[in-house]
Structures are given as C-alpha cells and as structure tokens.
Write a structure and sequence with these properties.
CATH topology of the domain at 102-203: Tetrahydropterin Synthase, Chain A
CATH superfamily of the domain at 102-203: Band 7 domain
Helix content: 55-70%
Structural class: alpha+beta
CATH class of the domain at 102-203: Alpha Beta
Radius of gyration: 58 Å
CATH architecture of the domain at 102-203: 2-Layer Sandwich
Distance between the termini: 164 Å
Shape: elongated
Strand content: 15-25%
Order of helices and strands: HHEEEEHHEEEHHHHEHHEHE
Length: 339
C-alpha cells in the first residue's frame, strides 16, 4: 500500500487523467461489447435460454423433437436436453410459438333461412395455442384451417333456421357453432375460446330495397290510420258537443216565452209601471231605428200640416218593379207633441 501511495503521489495530474480515461474506455467496452458477446456465446452453446410470458420454445434436432419449454423464466438447456444442448442451436432448429390469446372476425358467411332468404352471418371468435407440437407439425396453416372450420360450421349449423330465430336468438347460435368447432380445432393445437354471432344481415340488395319499401308503406298506413282515428274522435266529440248545445238552446227557446209571459203578467198588475215600460220600449226602438223626430208645439195644427206637406215627397216614393218590398225602407216622420 505504501508503494502504491508513493507511485500515485509521484504521478502528475496529466498521467492521472490519462489513467481515468483508459479505465472508462475499458469498462465501457467490457459492459457494452464483451458482456453481450459472452452471454450470446453461452446461449449459442445452449447453456441457458429465456422464455417469456405466453411463449413456448420447441427444439428440433435431426428431424426429432428433443424438447419443449412452455414455462416462462430462465432455463438451463444442459439440464433439460443434456449433451444435445451444445448442437441444437447450430445443427437443429428452434421454433418460437406465441401462445397469447388472439381473435378473428369472419364477415358475411352465406347462409339461407328456412324461408329461402339469402342471409349473411358475421361471427367473431377467440383462439389460443394449447399444444405447440400439434400447432407446428399437424397442420401447415392451422390459423387458416381454423377459420375455414368456423366458417363451414357456421354455414352447416345455421342454415335452414327460421328467419325470426336467426334475427333474434344469437346466443344459442353462437353456442351451437362453438360446440361444433371445438372438438376439431384441438387436433391442430388450437383451443377455441369465446364465439359470438355479431351480425346477421340480408345479402340480396333487391330484397333489402323491398323490405325498406314495405316498412315505409306500413308506416304510412299506420300513420294514416292514426290520423283517421283522431279525426273520427274529433268528429264524435264535436257532434256530441253540437248535440248538447242544440238541446240546451232548444230548452232555452222553449222556456223563454214562459219567463217573458210571467214577467209581463207581474208588470201588468200595476198600470202606471206597465205604461211607462211600454213607452220606454217604444222610444228605445225609435232611437235605435234612426227615425228623425220633429218636436211640434201643442195646438199647432197648421205647423203639423206644413211639415207633412214638406215631408210627403220623401215619405211616399215610387217602388221599382225589380226591387223587393223588403229592400225599400220608407223615411217616415214621427210627430211627437210636447208642451
């Protein structure tokens, strides 16, 4: 320690900086290059392997499957494969299988209803790999085969169903398709998850237009029936109201003479009251008729005769043969004497 301390003390500041830079470069090269290269060599010779979540590794050597690893984590191949771990990476082959949940949607699978209507069914399903060996070696295209199997099962199981059930009962149809597909898909390493019929539609454009026109016509008929029913109800209410009003007016017209007669009988018991009332009524009618009134002093016979002579041409007029009597209103002069 004393010797190292003496050497460090004897070194200049430039030499210390050079030593620090050299140590940094060596450390960087060791961490960035040498360590990854070392771990890569270890993996190449099968010392260890890392398996991720929902992943499987299948090792094939000389045409034979020597190992399958499905558990996530770090695995030592020498312990699992023995001496074959040294050659499997460069003389054999490693298959990486993704076992995560996947989904697919098949659009407009052609089916026919019991009534003969051409329908299209859209079906959605989930799937995942449960057997990596069967997935790799039992079928060259397991995903496409599963899609074809689902489509064929949909057409086979859902054809010739009643149109009403096909449009409404989707849950039962989904269960039927899933039960039909599951047994076959497991032979290819696939496990079918949820399966659901998402869409049922008409494939014939002309039929769609016909259905639309029928729906529109039906709506028009219903609207017209509602309007007509409303008009009938209004007519019934109006006629009932008119009938009730006519009955009430008839009752009023029937009892009016009785009421007026009783009132006149009571008034006629007093002669002065009766005379004053009739005079008032006569004066009121003369005023309402607009007849001119001439006030003549009492004991003026000559003046009365002169007024009559002057007003005579206005009072007596020739009546036209074409005019009706009701259309000619004579301008009469009423004489009222006053003191």
């Amino acid at each position: 320690m004393n010797m190292q301390t003496l050497l460090l003390a004897a070194m200049s500041s430039e030499e210390k900086f050079s030593m620090s830079v050299l140590a940094f470069v060596v450390t960087f090269i060791g961490i960035a290059i040498l360590v990854p290269v070392l771990f890569g060599i270890l993996r190449f010779f099968g010392v260890y392997v890392i398996v991720r979540e929902r992943q499987a590794l299948v090792y094939v050597l000389f045409g034979n499957v020597v190992g399958t690893i499905t558990e996530p984590g770090i695995h030592f191949l020498w312990k699992a494969l023995g001496i074959r771990a040294l050659f499997v990476n460069w003389l054999g082959r490693k298959y990486v299988v993704d076992m995560r949940l996947d989904q697919e949607y098949l659009r407009s699978q052609p089916v026919n209803s019991e009534e003969g209507a051409p329908m299209g069914v859209g079906i959605w399903y989930e799937m995942y790999i449960n057997n990596p060996f069967n997935y790799i070696f039992k079928n060259t295209d397991p995903r496409g085969s599963l899609a074809a199997n689902v489509g064929n099962s949909t057409v086979r199981c859902l054809s010739n169903l009643p149109l009403e059930r096909m449009m409404v009962d989707r849950h039962t149809m989904s269960q039927t398709v899933r039960e039909e597909v599951s047994a076959k898909s497991s032979e290819w390493g696939y496990m079918l998850g949820s399966c659901y019929v998402r869409k049922v539609h008409f494939r014939d454009v002309e039929m769609i237009h016909q259905i639309e026109s029928k729906v529109v016509n039906r709506l028009r008929q219903v609207t017209s029936a509602i309007k007509q029913d409303g008009a009938n109800q209004v007519s019934i209410i109006r006629s009932t109201a008119d009938k009730t009003a006519a009955m009430d007016f008839g009752k009023a017209a029937a009892i009016r003479p009785k009421i007026v007669g009783e009132a006149l009988r009571e008034i006629s018991k007093d002669a002065d009251v009766s005379s004053a009332m009739f005079e008032i009524l006569e004066t009121s009618r003369i005023q309402n008729a607009g007849v001119p009134i001439e006030l003549i002093p009492e004991d003026s016979d000559l003046l009365s005769q002169l007024l009559v002579a002057v007003k005579a041409p206005d009072i007596v007029r020739p009546v036209s043969s074409q005019a009706s009597p009701s259309s000619t209103t004579p301008n009469t002069t009423a004489g009222v004497s006053g003191k």
